[in-house]
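Sample 1 of the test manifest.
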Amino acid sequence: MDADYLPFHPAPKVPDFTPPAGAVDAHCHVFGPADTFPYSAKRKYTPCDAPKEKLFALRDHLGFSRNVIVQASCHGTDNAALVDALETAGPLARGVAVVSPDVTDAELDAMDKAGVRAVRFNFVKRLVDDTPREVFTGIAERITKLGWHIVVYFEAPDLEDLAPFLTSLPGIIVVDHMGRPDVSKGADHPDFDRFIALMAENDNIWVKVSCPERLTVAGPPYDDVVPFSRRLVEAFPDRVLWGTDWPHPNMKSHMPDDGQLVDVIPRIATTEDARRKLLIDNPMRLYWPEETKS
Ligand code: 0GY
C-alpha cells in the first residue's frame, strides 16, 4: 500500500539543543505496520508505516525520555496499534485515543490500563466525517470519570463556531497545533488574539505549541511560526505542551528534519524555567500525575 504523501525524514540530525533529562514528546503517532494493524477503510489518506520501534528510536536519538502517542484519523477508532505501542513502552509512553460512542466501559478500562489518558475529538473536515456534538458530549461525560482529558484538533476559521462547545466540555481541553493559525497574518492579528483570549478566560484550556512545519509559509527554520508559539509559552507557561508530530502525516510541501524541529524549542521557550515547564512539568502533570509531586 503506497502512502499518498512524503515519507518521514530517514536520518534526522542530532539536535543542537539538548532537551533536559525527562523531556516528553507530547504529540507523535504510530502507524501500522499495515499488515499487523490495518488502516481504517474510512481514512482520508494512507500513511507510511511508522511502527513503534522507529518512534522509540527517534525518541532516544532526539534526546527525549517519553512520548505521548496520539491516535490519528488513518486508524479511525481502532486503537490497537496505539495500545500495542503503549504496552511496549510501559511507563515511557501515554496515549490519546479516538473512540466511537459505542465503546464499552470494559474497552475504556483496558485502554486506561495500557496508558491511555485522553480522547481526541477531530473537527478537521479534510480528515474526518462530521460527528454530531452530542456524540462528543456523551463520550466526554464517560471519559472524565476515568480522569482522562480531551484533545481537540480544529483549524482557526472554525474557532468562532466551536468556542461555545469547547468551553462547555468538562475537564482539561488540549488544543492541537495552536489551533492552526494562519501565520501569514502575524501573531498579533485579531484572529490569534481571539485564541489567546479564549485561553485567558478558560484556565482548563491547554495548547500544543507544535507543528511549525505544518503552519509555516516561509519553510525551515520556521521564523514565521516562532512568534505564535513564543507568545503562547510566555502567556501560559503552565498550560503548554510540545511535540514532534512524527511521522508528520499529510506533509506534502516538505518533510521536516525532526532534529531541526527540536532546535526550535529554545527560540519559543527562551528560559530554562520555561523549557522545564514545557517539556517536563506540564506533560508530566497531565499524563503521569502519579509521578508528579504536589
Ligand atoms: C497531526 C495532523 C494531521 C493529521 C492528523 O488525525 C490525523 O490524521 O492529526 C494533519 O493532517 O494535519 O496532528 O498529525
